[in-house]
Amino acid sequence: MENAADALKIAASVLIFVVALSISINAFGEARMTATTILNYQDNEYDYTYVEENTDASGNVSTERIVGVETVVPSIYKAYRENYKIVFKGLDGGVYTKDDETGRAQEINTIDLQNEVLGTESQKEQFVNAILYGRKYSEFNTVKTTFENNLRIHLNDEGIYDKIVGRKIKENIGIYYQEEAGLEEDDSSVPDANKTTKRVITYTLL
Asked: Which of 64, 108, 53 is CA-nearest to residue 86?
């Protein structure tokens, strides 16, 4: 009888331990999910630059401001980490040039991952550094040769940074649906909920 009673006590203790362990694991799991959510929320708050709406004399609302090189450079890096398109107006020599089907070099004034399909993250980083800093980038000559041979892209010796440093630049931000790019408004059959939004930042050198 004593052995049976001891066995029941041990079984009850084990059951209590298992229940307590299950509750602890569940609590830790919820805590981890909460922490991850908070961190992701903080990362998004950090990554995005919010522009206050400006109202002109006619009452029209626009997201426009005057910025400098310290704003443009992070945006260029974001173009390949996020779904961004960056357009430059008034940039001498453009961002780079690219040979078309006939072998004629065309000046490119945009940075858009859709137009230039770059393979690895390392290649993307090299491309961004090369267009930003030109020949001042330590790996510029190697990168320039690789892009000319493989992608028919010709990089400028003078990078974007040197062209815009000390300049005032007008920034305009807009958003459009990728599925509707180049189409009339009613031509796309994709529901709005399933469309991919793309942020476009236009920098006009003043």
From this structure: 108
